[in-house]
Amino acid sequence: MGTFFWNIFLFIKRFRIASSIAVAVFLAFLWLGTSKIHFEEDISKVLMSNVETQHVNQLLENIDFSNKIVLVVSQKDSLASPNYDSLIATATQFVELMSPVDSLIKTMSLGLGKDKVTQVYDVFYRNLPLFLEEEDYEVIAKRIDESSIKRTIEGNFKALMTPAGIGMRSYILNDPLHFTPMVLEKLKRLQLGDSYKLHQNYLFSDDGYHLFFFMESAFASSDTGNNTLLVDNIVRAKTEVDNAICTLDYYGAPVVGACNAIQIKRDILLTVSLALVLLIVLISLLFRSWRIFILVFLPVVFGISVSLGCFYWVKGSISAVALGVGSILMGITIDYTLHAYVNFRSNRSIKGFLDSLSHPLMISGVTTSIAFLCLYFVDSPALKELGVFAALSILSAVLFVLILTPQFLESEATVKKVNKILFLNKIANIEFDKFRLTKWIILACTVLSVFSAGKVVFNGDLDTLNYQTEYLKQTEQKLKEISSVAFRSVFFVVEGESLDAALTKFETYNIVIDSLQTQEVIRNISSPGSILKSKKEQQIRL
């Protein structure tokens, strides 16, 4: 193997201009890929992902609540009476402040407008038979009794004579016997728990101290780049609307996703920076030469660039979690250059260096790469990318050391005297094999490790995978205190080729769901199936 790399060395040395052009073209190719690659900051990709979980994730991405943000305006003084006007005014001001960034927001709903109430009423009024159940016909039979009709008409007349009758006129004329309101009552089935109420068409907590409204991001919760911009604007608007009476808080999947993305970037920057600083300090103490700095770090930069370039040209993106291994790669690949340099410094021969080190370096690089590639068999997209990224980086760095580094080692100026660091030399000179107790200590530690390894408990709480700031933790706790039902909810999703197919399939589960509720396994059910019916069920009702 040494002969192979020696021939490559001679070839590059002989055709230096052509080789330099080829290297420059290859580096330009890598630069194009690394500069345009997209970093995915979706923390959920760390989770295991088999066919079933992929299907569930796909369903969640297509469900509207996955990119919704809950906004709650709270009254600071809970001892005073609820100040509905201040809560509404604060929420309205927030909506106005967010209007310049409409491109980041798909929808934002504050209260129920009159037009929405009218639209809902019209849907039920025009399709009244589809929403009627058997017990409803018993009520209707009583209402169409002559005496009942007379009382209802008299009540309608009195209502029309009042100032409020102006708004009720169209409803009374269209439905004088009030059949539609009877069906509208069924909308309460969609309410999960009794912690909320409507006041002036706004959604409040039951005690009136919290006003809720919702914002839907224009981007998926995994698009943390754009969602980070949205969260920044929410924070800016929050600082302006908070006052002595009310405060605004926010929470949701896009917010948590953006928080995780920011933390991932910080962690990667911190770990890589620490590794870089420690390596620079160590190399400075040993060599004190800028040429050695460049020589040591070139394989690191080259290896990472090759990996990023390959990911760009093959996939177009890479998980930011995979870059977290950057500090580890830096330590591994720098070792290869140091081995090469120390070997060359000892015998001052490029051929001798290639003959003695090419085989062990290649074996070391291949075995380390295979170890990382084992992650490819883990059902986690991020860990798969991490394994491939690390393997490509290490192999590229080894090839750089064996092919290009010898071109820089020819110069005598490259060879520097290694400064001795006393405490490192003392540790290196200890002959542990001559200590009799060494093997017994190692054996005892191994036995203890075997017995204690089985007692390790793995964290089963997936929520701990998500990083949340103290503010988000406090907001989550506040929402739980207002209504803990929503945080204990289990979502039951039925999939179909069309809405009617999904409704038909859902109706087959009604018996099971009802039995679970009878057994008190389920406390409450909020289901659109209680209102929306399949075409088959609609025909039966008609």
Secondary-structure topology with pairs:
Blueprint: H1 2-14, H2 16-36, E1 38-40, H3 51-61, E2 68-75, H4 84-97, E3 105-109, H5 114-126, H6 128-131, H7 134-143, H8 146-160, H9 165-174, H10 179-184, E4 196-199, E5 202-205, E6 210-217, H11 224-241, E7 246-252, H12 253-286, H13 290-314, E8 317-319, H14 326-347, H15 350-373, H16 381-403, H17 405-409, H18 422-428, H19 437-453, H20 470-482, H21 499-507, H22 510-518, H23 535-541
Parallel strand pairs: 1-8
Antiparallel strand pairs: 2-6, 2-7, 3-6, 4-5, 5-6
What does this structure look like?
- The chain starts with a helix and ends with a helix.
- By secondary structure, it is α+β, with helices and mostly antiparallel strands.
- Helix 4 crosses helix 11 (224-241), helix 13 packs across helix 14 (326-347) and helix 15 packs antiparallel against helix 16 (381-403).
- The protein has helices spanning 2-14, 16-36, 51-61, 84-97, 114-126, 128-131, 134-143, 146-160, 165-174, 179-184, 224-241, 253-286, 290-314, 326-347, 350-373, 381-403, 405-409, 422-428, 437-453, 470-482, 499-507, 510-518, 535-541, and strands spanning 38-40, 68-75, 105-109, 196-199, 202-205, 210-217, 246-252, 317-319.
- The radius of gyration is 34 Å and the shape is elongated.
- The model has no long low-confidence stretch (mean pLDDT 79).
- The strands form 2 sheets. Strands 2, 3, 4, 5, 6 and 7 form a 6-stranded antiparallel β-sheet that branches.
- Strand 5 (202-205) and strand 6 form a beta hairpin.
- 61% of the residues lie in helices and 8% in strands.
